């Protein structure tokens, strides 16, 4: 430790002054750079660095220094990385793991040590529940389902609905339940509920029951393969009503499996990579396309959001005190980030939900929905 100090001091003197740790603001990045979900962490890291090119890396007159630690897509490693970033690297805040399991391991440590941590993409409600120093940049599944129900009632004018959800996936079941609750809260009626399982190929029994009930809308909050097959079989059986899904539809395979049958499908999404909802979002999209020659991904965009939320919180706090930064994050309201505007409430992100429609074999932006 003494040798390291001497080296830094000498470099500082050579540059004409003493280098102080106070001249930088250290932010940790506890991400999945290797392991089972390495792609998620790598995309988030890519987004964080890209947005730094756009907005700069200085806040309160100090340079922001990012300290990356690979959690190897492992809960124990995520906890260890959190401890290292706080105790050894002296970070004032952390951009946390991508997945909920690792955030659930990291969050309690940050809570105990009073260091704010924000995940780009962890959606489990337990991640932030009962915590003051744990945040997320993405919306929760209940919020997405509520947005779908609001869109179904107000824009699609659906009075009745059917729900066909994948009972083998907690994500799908939860979305279906939350949609029903919100749809009926808004005066609609879910007249039939059916279930399938991941890997099913034949949905004729469920669809026959649904078609006989004659709902205005069919809500299928599943993953893309089952959605595509359900659309094909529903159309073959003569169903002509509206089909609405969630962000599980967002994959190229929806089109290759569903073909013409998915034409007209609506779905809710985190964002639309072809249309910036504000100036910072458009700049991000343009730079990403210029740099990589393709549309940006959701994980990188939400990583950029997490960075922007932190930087603006530090600026508003006027301090590098982690407690004051935490307070400023919680006070975030209508902040322009890459995916739109975001407000933080009880650690969770409230932001517009994008609605898209399949037209001509591709997703086309329809509108954004802010749950009221």
TrEMBL record:
- The keyword Lipid biosynthesis is assigned to this record: no
The record's listing under InterPro entries reads: BCAA_transport (IPR051010), Leu-bd (IPR028081), Peripla_BP_I (IPR028082)
Note the superkingdom of the native organism. Bacteria
Record's Pfam families?
Answer: Peripla_BP_6
The alphabetical list of record keywords is: Signal
Q: Can you give the residue ranges of the Leucine-binding protein domain? A: 24-361
The protein's matches in SUPFAM superfamilies, at most eight in alphabetical order, are given as: Periplasmic binding protein-like I
**Cross-referenced CDD domains, in alphabetical order?**
PBP1_ABC_LivK_ligand_binding-like
Keyword Hydrolase, does the record have it?
no
Q: Which PANTHER family match?
A: LEUCINE-SPECIFIC-BINDING PROTEIN, PERIPLASMIC BINDING PROTEIN OF ABC TRANSPORTER FOR NATURAL AMINO ACIDS
Query: Would you identify the family this protein belongs to, as annotated?
Result: Belongs to the leucine-binding protein family.
Under which name does UniProt file this protein? ABC transporter substrate-binding protein
Native organism: Candidatus Caldatribacterium saccharofermentans
């Amino acid at each position: 430790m003494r040798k390291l100090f001497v080296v830094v001091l000498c470099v500082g003197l050579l540059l004409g002054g003493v280098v102080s740790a106070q001249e930088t603001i250290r932010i940790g990045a506890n991400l999945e750079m290797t392991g089972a979900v390495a792609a998620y962490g790598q995309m988030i890291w890519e987004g964080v660095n890209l947005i730094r090119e756009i907005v700069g890396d200085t806040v309160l007159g100090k340079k922001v220094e990012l300290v990356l630690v690979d959690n190897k897509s492992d809960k124990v490693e995520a906890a260890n990385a959190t401890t290292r970033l706080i105790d050894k690297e002296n970070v004032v805040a952390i951009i946390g793991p991508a997945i909920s399991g690792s955030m659930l391991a990291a969050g309690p440590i940050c809570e105990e040590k009073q260091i704010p941590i924000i995940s780009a993409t962890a959606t489990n409600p337990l991640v932030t529940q009962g915590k003051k120093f744990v945040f997320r940049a993405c919306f929760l599944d209940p919020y997405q389902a509520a947005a779908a129900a609001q869109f179904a009632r107000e824009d699609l004018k659906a009075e009745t609905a059917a729900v066909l959800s994948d009972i083998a996936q907690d994500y799908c079941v939860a979305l279906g339940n939350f949609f029903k609750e919100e749809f009926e809260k808004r005066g609609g009626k879910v007249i039939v509920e059916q279930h399938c399982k991941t890997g099913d190929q034949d949905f004729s029994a469920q669809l026959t029951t649904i078609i006989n009930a004659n709902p205005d809308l069919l809500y299928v909050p599943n993953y893309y393969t089952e959605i595509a097959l359900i659309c094909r079989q529903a159309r073959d059986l003569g169903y002509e009503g509206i089909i609405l899904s969630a962000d599980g539809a967002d994959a190229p395979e929806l089109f290759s499996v569903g073909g013409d049958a998915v034409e007209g499908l609506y779905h809710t999404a985190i964002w639309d990579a072809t249309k910036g909802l504000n100036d910072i979002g458009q700049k991000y999209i343009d730079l990403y396309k210029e740099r990589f020659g393709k549309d940006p991904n959701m994980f990188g965009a939400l990583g950029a959001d997490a960075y922007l939320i932190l930087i603006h919180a530090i600026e508003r706090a006027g301090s590098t005190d982690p407690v004051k930064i935490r307070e400023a994050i919680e006070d975030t309201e209508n902040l322009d980030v890459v995916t739109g505007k975001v407000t933080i409430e009880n650690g969770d992100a409230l932001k517009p939900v994008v609605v898209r429609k399949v037209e001509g074999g591709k997703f086309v932006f329809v509108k954004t929905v802010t749950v009221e």
